[in-house]
Amino acid sequence: MKRHLNPVSFAAVALCLAAGHAAAQDNTLRINSFGGAYETAHRKCVITPFEKETGAHVQVVTAYSADAFAQLRAQKNAPQFDVINFSGGQEIVAAAEGLLSPVDPKKLVNAADLYDFAKAGLAKGEGPAYSVAAIGMIYNQNSMRTPPASWKELMNPKLTPHLVLTDISNGYGMLGFLMLNKVEGGDLSNIQPGLNAVKKLLDGGATIVSTSPEIQQEFAQNAAWLAAYASDYAYTLTKANLPVKFTQGAEGTPASYITTNLVAKRPNQALALKFIDMSLSKNAQQCFATELRYSPTNAKAVLPADVAAGVAYGASGVKGLLRFDAPTIEANRSAWVEKWNKTIAKK
């Protein structure tokens, strides 16, 4: 005997299945992270606590900022990320292109505790900065008893043979170069003063490298005393038992803002906002500072003395942060790299 499914029952089953699928979708977030030690810290400081608190599942795609931005652009009609993290200023361009949603600070419990610079672009769709990689000077404290207090120390001829410069194809290297250019009298419309300084330094015996591990090698094996680079990597060298410290220059501290952004055209923005909010919490930021030496953007974050010494910390520490205009850098990057390569080829 055949059994016929009641149409009402069939509809009810279909509705339940659809509701179950929607619930699963609403309880899952897809984000990017940057791999390696960063992703390990990201999971410890934000992702795992978020999953435990909300019962949600976070799918992590390892993608650095430039690659994540390229994916976001390619998927603009059907984006796959719910939250996207950037460290190179890509949120400014992405927001202008309508790829990110504006964020109402009233929907973020922790927004009120952020320094103003960290939330300045929310209404435009630029996500809040939840950490900062501060670019300053890494120095060998055994060789330099007095910490360098000024970016002009990079031009000290007594230090030149022990100076490490980083290629501007490296993001941190670009920021360090732009600061050198600034103190030498240049700006984003004129990088020639910086290029002239680089040529002089290379002629005086400075070393140029392209990657972070090469910096470690120079300090470990080749008597490097000084390099313009980031607070997080200074900590990496410290963990490798090298006698280095990080310090900020009096003229300002170039900053790489690490932002967490709400992707437009996604169905579960409420859950995404909860994730963003957790990234802004003092606990998450204290964790990032401890694990990687990133500077907190939450004014209520409290750091132990040894951690605070390695970052831009507190109102006085972040006061000196400066951010070079990311769209201008991107528009000129290729031309600047070409000029840089010609300069270092003539050393």
From TrEMBL:
SUPFAM superfamilies: Periplasmic binding protein-like II. Pfam families: SBP_bac_8 (PF13416). InterPro entries: SBP. Keywords: Signal. Residues 1-24 form the signal peptide. It comes from the Bacteria. This is ABC transporter substrate-binding protein.
